[in-house]
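WARN no homologs supplied; continuing
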Amino acid sequence: MAENQNMNTENLSEILQIRRDKLTALQEAGQDPFLVTTSDRDIMSNEVIERFEELEGKDVCVAGRIMSKRGKGKVMFMDIHDRGGKIQIFAKFDDLGEEIYKGLKKWDIGDIMEVKGFVFKTQMGEISIHAKAVKLLSKSLLPLPEKYHGLTNTDLRYRQRYVDLIMNPDVKTTFIKRSAIIKSIREYLDSNGYIEVETPILNTIPGGAAARPFTTHHNSLNLDMYMRIATELYLKRLIVGGMERVYEIGRNFRNEGMDVKHNPEFTCIEYYEAYTDLYGMMDRTEQLINKACVTVNGTDQIEYQGDQISLALPFKRVTMIDAVKEHTGIDFNEFYCDTEKAKEVAKELHLEVKSTDTWGNILNSAFEEYVEDKLIQPTFVCDYPVEVSPLTKRKQDKPELVERFELFCKIGELANAYTELNDPIDQKKRFEHQLMLREAGDDEANMMDDDFVTSLEYGMPPTGGVGIGIDRLVMLLTDSASIRDVILFPTMKPIEK
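OK structure emitted
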């Protein structure tokens, strides 16, 4: 094994030296590719193929990375890749001349080149470009992974995304779809009168979610600050200010664990609409997701990790109590708000219970343990206990519950939404309860935000609000198993040297 490793290291060193020597030779000949600043490229590879009947026999200029070379003697075939796809290049000694053709033969896989020539179809029926002139635009000093095996090491793929994108076309497709999904969301909200805004990333008080923040320090102010965990409280301040329909797409930061569904920095969209409630936001949310799905997949029927998922409208709607009853047989309505009975039930269900837990906390725990991972089709779960929803308006007929929904499907939670709490007196009491939890050791509980309470005292209209994790939505719509597959540069532990 050690001998093989040594041999591989020696071979790599030799390859690197050869490529460096080639660069040096080019530079000494006055052909330094790194001095080239632009290209005459006028068409992409996919356009050549799509417009073949129109372009056959006509001159074009393409540019891209050399991904394969083959041929002998005075004839050579190459495949070059650009952002549109790939195109075959046909090069002949007789067309290019001895000096240029010999130089071309020395170019390496990974080099970036420009080709001017005419469009034709080979005897094998492959649309190609017959080269009349070639130019080296950039030199690859490191070899790409072996062609047939590609970059398969998952850890390395995430660390060296640039190589991953070169070697794995499906990866590039995923991120093109991600862009299309975000564009679709913007188009939907913009067309419904929403305004896109930007709110602070550095916060003096982290709020809007139950999460542990990242802490930093502002030297000039000599002040500890926090990376935002959510945009909610600032966006609701804008509703108070009369903007009525607002949204923000941006990064949130949570100092929490990492797994296939969690990354410490992630992209979220939150949107808020005055004069509606959670049911109006349900309609918005399912329409938004359905549109994004159809935009990138051409259908609202998709497959995710082996399961067929229907994103056709409308999505299923169920209360948390009914969902727990369906999957456990226990009806929390039968002992409504009875914490002692709930603790007995928790023992039966083998749930961990804190001393501060109440009926509502236990109901939520039962849901998380026995229901969440069984919701395969998109399902709105509503009527959450007030204990786990400190920013949500209470239900009028059952004030121990709130007007909140979360959207679940096989991938897990996709969206969280409220009929927003606009009672400043109730809001302050809930912040005070959250402070009690923090003092009891819960570092994910909300801090007191007096300014936000003040904003509510000026009056906020009835409002609905939604937060959607963009990364998870992209995972679902691209059939990606890990959040790292849909984040270009996921957080990685540095390699120890």
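Residues 2-28 form the longest helix (27 residues).
OK
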